Structure formats: C-alpha cells, structure tokens
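Ticket #4471: structure export looks truncated?
Reporter: QA, pipeline team
Priority: medium

Steps to reproduce: submit the single chain below to the structure queue and open the exported record.
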Amino acid sequence: MKVKITTRNILSWIKTVFINVVAICFIIIFFEAYLAYDEFDREFGIGRVTDTYEKGSRTHINTNEKYPVDLYPNATFVFEELKKEGKRGIKRFSPGALVVNDMPGIDFEGETVFPFAGVSNIGTVYCKESGFWVVYDSDEHGFRNKKGTWKDAKKVSPDVVLLGDSFTQGACIEESDTFSSAIRRTGRSVINTGVGGTGPIIQYGIFKEYIAPVKPKKVLWMFFAEDIRDAVTEVKNPLLSNYLSDAGFKQDLMNKQDLIDKSLSFFYEVGYPKMLYDLRNKRQDRKYIVTAKIVERSFFNGSKSFFQVKKLIRSLHEDVDPTEGNEEHKLDLFQTVLSKMNEEIKGWGGELVFAYIPTWVQYGGTKDSYGISVTDNYLLKKDIINIVEEHGVKSIDLDSEFIRKNDAPHTMYNDNKYGHFHPTAYREIGEYLAERFEKLTR
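Actual output as written to the record:
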C-alpha cells in the first residue's frame, strides 16, 4: 500500500519532529538545571543535619546535647541560658574576618593587636552545624583546651600540638569528638591551637606566638584543602606579612592576653556586628553570582550536550573551564611556611607531621561553584603533597588513605553538603588519624 505524500503529510511530519526535538532539549536542560541547583543547594541550602552515612541520612537530634537547635534556634537563646547558669558567654572569634575586611588589627586604647585566638577563660559559643550549639570554655589564651593547659606546657613540653583551622578546632562537635581528643586518648599530652577562619600565614603566626615558646616534641599541622586560597589574601595584610619577611617578628601575644581580652570585647560590641552584616551581604551577593552561573550552565550545558559541540565551544570560550589562578604564588607561600616551620621545629629537636583534610567539593561534584573542575589536583593537592615530601616531612593524607575509601565519602559531611564532618565521621577520622600518627612517630 503506497502512502500518498502530500503537503499536509510533510507539514505533519515536520511538526512531529520539531515537537520531539523541543521535548528532548527541554528534558536535557531540565536535567542540567537540576544538577546545577543540587550543587547550589549543597552549598547554600538549609537541610537536615546528618550523623550517619552507612545506610542513608538521618536527622541528628540527640537529646543528650545541652543546646539542641530545636530548643535554641539562635545564639541569643544560648547566651540567655548561660546567664541563667551564672556564666558569661561570647561568640567565637575568627581572625580571617579581619583579613577579609582589610583590617591590620584591632585598635584599642592606643595599641594595635591582631588576635589569633579568642577571649580567655570564657564560655565560647561556636556553631550549630551538627544540630546543636557547641559551647566550650576557652583556656588562658583563648584556645579550645582545658584551663591551665599553657601553665603546664611551660613546665613540661607537650607531646603534641595541633595546628590548623576550624576542622582542627572542632567545628560544631563536642570536645570528645575532636582530633585532639582522639590523639589524647593514646596517652599523649596534647594542645589544640586550631582556629577557624585561618590560613597558612595566620597559622604560622600562631606557631611563632604560641607553639615555638613551649617547644613540643611533635607539631601536627592539620591542613584543610581550601586553606591554600587563604594564603594569598593573608599575606597582603601588612602585619601578617611580617611573620614571613622578618624572622624576629612577634606580637608577643602570650604576654598580651589582657589586651587581647579587652580589645576583643570592645570589638564584639563595636566592630564585629557591622562586619557580620557586611559578610552576610557578601554571601548574599555570592548567592546571586552562583545562581546566575546555574542558569547559564543549565542552558549552556543542555544545548552543548544536545548538539555535541563541547570541544568547539570550549575552544571559542576560554573561560568555560577556569583555573584557580595564582597557582605559583600560592605554592610559594605554602612552601615558605612549611620550610620555616620545619626548620624551627628541627632546631629544638622536635618533628613536624603534615595531615591533609579534604573539602566536601572533592567528592560532591565535577565542578565547584566557581566553575573550577574537580580533578585529582584540585586546590593544588598533588603539588602540596609533593612539596611536603620534598622537605622530608611525614604526612597523613586523610583523603586518599581513609575518606575516599568510603563508598559515599561526601556523606561524611553534615547534611551531605559543603561544610564540616558530622560527629560520627569526626570520631572515625580522628581514630584513624591517631592510629596513623602513632605509627609515624614511634
């Protein structure tokens, strides 16, 4: 039976093909949009907080926690509770906030000081990412240790001092789950000098001001992957840059705790509220930027997938797959800090050990929210490890040695999103860290 070809049949066929093409394009673009939004949600979304990763996620609400978020929705409620208990509470201090806002330090009563830790001997309200507010009593220099830690360290050098950022400080977890507690359970005396909002330059400043004077047997530098970015910004600060350019430079912070306490208390009342407001605005601006990228990527990638012209488009648009930028400068700063620290530690007969902490982005997608591809050298990881090895420093790669061996490593972070480890993961990683550290330093 022959089908008579008519104008109507041709038009009908064209119409059917057109509808199918549009439908396929729509499906592809919708899928790309979903993937892009999922990435956005993982960084900015408000979801559940997880405490397990073996059989899916579950909300972490532990009735044993003193300040669960469902009862204390913001820090104000926690401060009020501390008042009822006859205690004074204060927000934790982030040195990086001064750097981001181009502040050389805090001016107070004719003196300028750049604090590295918080107010001493006080209830410090940290964060709530794990489903409850973490509150700890700071030591005599504002770090997260028991009171009297530094007095003891001046008498007998500690076995280990941990240096690092918020992961080392123990962001959003109880003290028993911190890395320092895991190592302490092996029988070693430990001091935790981890401070959130710090990068390599500030951490070297902490080393010079607080660690070098007590000359510990071991220094464990817990390096978070994203800290490599902070070095470029920190070194621009005129005061911080002195730590690299002048071997004898110090603020003498160990003997200025009274000034630090007063200046920080003043800063919290006068400067910090405005700074937090500005930071919130910057984060909101970042949301707009990321959202625009999502829209662009959704349509661009969808069309690109359909028409199979990925290579051609990339050749025409060099900024489609951007790089970090300042790679050599970042690595040079990192190497300078590592080298100086290592030589000084060896000078008093101690040993430096390096531990690498990965960011969620290394498991959560093929690109980060800046559009940078997540490769095996993302955030210059391979270069950093190579530098550590070249200097003969022992290292622990928590990424390849432990976390990546999990079936779903991204779920070891709170709510399977960008942020810190959830309490269960902290404990397991801490146990592995302590075991590896023991073997490396026997």
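Status: closed, not a bug. The export was complete when the record was re-opened. Leaving a note from the reviewer for reference: The chain has two domains: 7-45+282-320, 75-270+326-440.
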